[in-house]
UniProtKB/TrEMBL annotation:
SUPFAM superfamilies: Acyl-CoA N-acyltransferases (Nat). This is FemAB family XrtA/PEP-CTERM system-associated protein. It comes from the Bacteria. Residues 165-300 form the BioF2-like acetyltransferase domain. Gene3D superfamilies: 3.40.630.30.
Length: 358
């Protein structure tokens, strides 16, 4: 009689992110997994941590040396918001990737233990496989929505796919004295960051350090670029986009005070749709927006339908939930005050605060 088959034991451990072989195994696992995103890649979470002075970590679960689960993490410290483990930091995606034979509960228990060991009072998982409610975990489904749809087959079809009112704005932008440039060199980065800083100050939000944006561009290489709209030579709207599995993801973008009058943002996103299709993309992922916010309605005007997102949060026993929502009543005054800062002051102080928001 044959002996019964005993499956190999599962074990959870911290990944060695200094080992190139570990990097390669993780990248291969993400590439195979149907839910893998750019925000799972070491190119994102390791680069983001190094550029902001935070710490990159990852939990892996193995069976007989084979990865069956992976959870990328950024350990983020803020003197204002406290300590956070995010999957992943400065991203709208992340979370656990797992195969069918993984023990997800063991990984969720391990990340809670890791947070306690690192004195992080909060964990946020922004996608992927999510834990059950309880034991410190709560799920949120109403706070943010994502917007994505297929690209059209040619330029004219892309224009006609935009609802009538927004299509009229795009047509006006095409008749305006605007020029579009695409690249990722020093001049493209400088132009983008100048626009980005002004846009964030006007929104009342501390701007991310330029080192973060540069690190992501460097790490993604051909899978990222900058599209900038200029008026009379001056940059008025600009966006950094990521490219992943045939999808373009405009991520860090914004416009100057003049952009609205010039309809530069309308030109920027339409031009990006055309550019992405010429790169071989078939899908446009407009990214997440807070439900019912101005950005939420802007994306709906383009014909994108909201897809509610579910995030998981863990709070350490005895700790208050982390509040980093700029629309909350507790932060509304700070947002208003930030909007009134001189741009030079906001640009100097903002990155010191933003590196801890995560």
């Amino acid at each position: 009689m044959n002996a019964p088959f005993v499956p190999a034991a599962l074990r959870v451990r911290l990944a060695d992110l200094d080992d190139p072989g570990e990097f390669a195994r993780i990248e291969a696992f993400i590439a195979r997994h149907p839910q893998g995103t750019p925000f799972h890649r070491p190119a994102w979470f390791v680069s983001a941590a190094r550029a902001t002075g935070n710490r990159a970590l990852a939990l892996v679960q193995e069976r007989a040396g084979e990865l069956v689960a992976f959870l990328p993490l950024d350990a983020i410290h803020s003197p204002i918001f406290g300590r956070l483990l995010a999957s992943t930091g400065f991203a709208v995606g992340g979370g656990m990737l797992a195969t069918e034979d993984a023990d997800a509960a063991a990984v969720f228990a391990a990340v809670a233990e890791l947070a306690s060991r690192l004195s992080c009072t909060a964990i946020e998982l922004r996608g992927g496989l999510l834990p059950q409610q309880g034991e410190g975990w709560t799920l949120r489904t109403e706070s943010h929505c994502n917007f994505a749809r297929a690209l059209a087959e040619d330029d004219e079809a892309q224009l006609l796919a935009i609802p009538r009112k927004q299509r009229a704005e795009v047509r006006r932008s095409l008749s305006t004295d605007l020029a579009v440039e695409i690249g990722a060199g020093p001049a493209d980065r400088a132009a983008h960051y100048a626009v980005f800083c002004e846009s964030y100050r006007n929104l009342g939000t501390p701007v991310f350090p330029r080192a973060l944006l540069d690190a992501v561009l460097d790490a993604f290489g051909h899978d990222a670029d900058i599209l900038t709209v200029r008026h009379q030579g001056a940059p008025v709207a600009s966006v950094i986009s990521l490219y992943h599995r045939g999808t373009v993801m405009p991520y860090w973008g914004g416009g100057t005070s003049a952009a609205r009058r010039l309809r530069a943002n309308d030109r920027m996103y339409y031009a990006l749709m055309l550019h992405a299709r010429r790169r071989g993309c078939t899908r446009f992922d407009f990214g997440r927006s807070k439900t019912l916010s101005g950005a939420y309605h802007f994306k709906r005007n383009w014909g994108f339908e909201p897809e509610p997102l579910t995030y998981a949060r863990w709070t350490a026993p005895g700790s208050a939930p982390r509040n980093d929502d700029p629309t909350s009543s507790g932060l509304a005054r700070q947002v208003l005050a930030w909007q009134r800062l001189p741009l030079a002051v906001a640009n100097r102080v903002g990155p010191l605060i933003a590196r801890g928001i995560g």
